[in-house]
Every structure is written in C-alpha cells, then in structure tokens.
Amino acid sequence: MTTVGDATAAGRVIVLDVVGLQQDHLGNGNTPNITALLEGGTSADLRPPMPAVTVPAQTTLATGRSPASHGDVANGEYDRETGKVAFWERDRADRTRLWEAASEAGLTTGALFFQHLIGTTADVAVTPSPIEDEDNNLLEMNCWTNPDGFYDDLEAEYSHFPLHHYWGPGANERGSEWILTAARETIERYDPDLLWIYVPHLDYDGQRYGPGTPEFKNALETVDRLVGEFLDFLREDSRWDATAVNIVSEYGFHSVDTPIFPNRALRDAGLLSVDNTDDHGDEVNVPQSRAFAMVDHQVAHVYVEPDALPAARRALKNLDGIASVLETEGKERHNIDHPNAGDLVLIAEPAAWFQYYWWTVEENAPAYATDMDIHSKPGYDPCELFFGDSGLASLDPSKVRGSHGRVDDESLPLYGLGGPAAPELQVTEPVDARAVAPTVSELLGIDLSSTLAFDVPALISQNSTVK
C-alpha cells in the first residue's frame, strides 16, 4: 500500500454513489460485497448537506462546498423574477465539479448519470436526455454523452437506456444494471483516472416501502449484487492494484406516514393564487401568488412577498408534521443561506414529508398530477412511484412510506473507502460531505483547492487519522 500523502497514492479513483446506503447496512448479511470491500478500509457515517436531497447532495459531494456557497438548495429552482418553478432542468451552466477540474488538470475523467451533466467537460459522460414533445411526452429515448456517439454504441450493444425502469411505477434494478454496464464500457474504452457513477436502485423501494422493510432489504441485496459484479470486473482490470474505491451515499431514509400540504394552507389563507379551469383542473398561478411552497421530500422552500410574511407564518406554523421553520438565522445555521433558498424553509418531523398539492378534491387536480411528469410539477412527487387509478401516477400520498431531506443521526448515509490503493483512515466522527471532493482530489495526487475552493480539508492527513 502506498503511503498517505504520496502523490501516487492511487493511480485511479472510482466513486460509487449508492444512494440510500447507510453504515448499519454493512455486516448484516444483505451487503456482503460492499462489506468485504470496506472491511480492510474505512467506513463511517456521512453528514450530508441540508437538505439531504439529490441535487444539493450531489453538488456538495462533487464540489466540496455547501448549498450556501454553490446555490443548489433543492432539486428544483424558483425564479423570483418570473415566478416559474423548474425541477431537474438545469444544465452544467457555471458549475465546476471534481471531474471537470480534474480533466482541466490533465487527468482523464468520467461521470455517469449525475444530475446536470449536459455540457460537462468530463472526458466521458452519460446522462438521460430523452426527446419529448411540448407536453413532455416521450418521443424517443436518448442520452447525452461525451464523446459524441458513445450512446449510439451503448444502445447498439445493450439496447436503449431503460428510462421507465429508472423512475416511475416501473422503477427497478434495470436502470442501475444498465448504468454499471456503461461504467464497464467506459473503463474498457477510455480507462479514466477518475470515474464517478450514480447507482440509484435503493431510492425506489426506500420511498415506496421505507427503511427496514423486507422490500428494502431485498433492494439492498440486489444493489450489492450489482456492485459486487462491477467490483469483480475491476479486480480483473490491469489497474486494480492502483485503484481506490469510494462508496458514498447522499442520504438515508426515514419511515414516514404523514404527508404535509403547505400549499393547501397557503391557499386557505388567501396567499396562493389558483386558476380554476374546466379542462385542466386547479392550476396554481405562482406569479400571482403572495406565497408559494416549492416542496422537496422533507424540506419545503416557501417564497413569500415581504408584506405577506406574517400571514404565511400564521398559515404554516400549526400544520401537523413541521419540525421547524427556518428564517435568516436558521438558514445560516444550516448552511443554506443563499438567495435561491426560500424566505421560509420548512423542515418536516422524521415521520413526515411535504407534498405539493393545493387541491383537496381529486377531480380538481391538474392534468399532470396523474402523469409521470417530473418537469411540469412545481414540486417533487414521490407518488409517481405508484400506478394510479385514473392515470400513470397515483394521487394517494398515504402510499409513500419513506422519505429523506432532514439531517439527523438516524438517517446519516455512508462514506466508505476501500481497494488496494486506499489509505488506512481512522474516522471517529461523521464525515462532512464537503470533505469527499478534496479527499478524492488528494487520492488522485492533484491539488484542486484553488479551482474548487473547498470549504473543508480532505480526510487524508500525514498521520492517516481523522479525529
């Protein structure tokens, strides 16, 4: 094993983002392959950013910065000038993440299926980019890739990426299996020094059934088998002896039974504007609203006209399931004090989560409510994981049994480091998610701190110890 701090500590770094994985999933018989990889290395709790949801967590892991700095405060974005809400629609924009900075430093890099990969300068990238009509109906499956033509090759060999098994009522292991197949092809064709891979399988049954259920344990076994097959592939590769494997997760799950409807409360208070249409149900009119809640799992950003703040507080404070309402000081304390954040930020109790509905009678639901339509809905909708009675997606929030977003000791995800080129670390406290990017940078033997302006230092020290 090479020495810690040596610039040759790892010739190659693989990062597997096994979303939903926690430290107590190791050694229980459900994850023998992941457990074996980390037995001779490092495993610890990971403290994610608040909110612990996909985009803020991914951006923090890949930049070493908090949402207060990088500005990704939710899976969606609210434009205060236009009053428009957009979920999952950002491209690379001005982001510089670890794989882009490392590529600029001369390494070969790859990133597979992270959010906002379109336009990345990573040498290898694959991310879904289906061709849709103006109503968001799928016309043709496609992926955006670097280099051009890589998806065509993958599709010819392995068929199209199974989008309907990646999200929605049919979500299952096929999406993760295809991603890991693409990862093997990436290694065989392009041999990257850094490869960052998103493995989403646990997310589905974590939300459908909640943690600790037989269904979730089955999902653990499935994802461990898929990761194990990928690790076996790596062990046969000529660079295995120079490889360090990071296992990271973005969040753990809470068991939930209480949906919260902040937009209904704002509507009842006369703060949320709704247009009643015969053909399209009750459509929220965000630009005309004095307050609107952009919900995202267990966190909701409430955007409020200044003169409506007292009324919004009154409307929301007594809702069952809300643990806290953050304003200026609270947002600063949670490192989410960025202009993109809501004027009020709601955090749910552990057993509760936020649903975007503003109607109370199903017949008044907008047309997209029963569709699997992640771009039209102005809030995250886990009911899309269930078939509905009158459409593809359910309108029954009571079906959702797991959620995430709040940060507490019960739901901390995993950080692990293993493989033949991984240094030995003694970690006694939860790892700050912001430490992952500088740690990967140091494993690669490159200094990216000036490019990425890390908030915290790497885990690796000269004494190989983190206290």
TrEMBL record:
UniProt superkingdom: Archaea
Signal peptide coordinates: none
MF annotations from Gene Ontology: hydrolase activity
Pfam families in UniProt: Phosphodiest
Protein name (database record): Alkaline phosphatase family protein
Organism in which the protein naturally occurs: Haloarcula nitratireducens
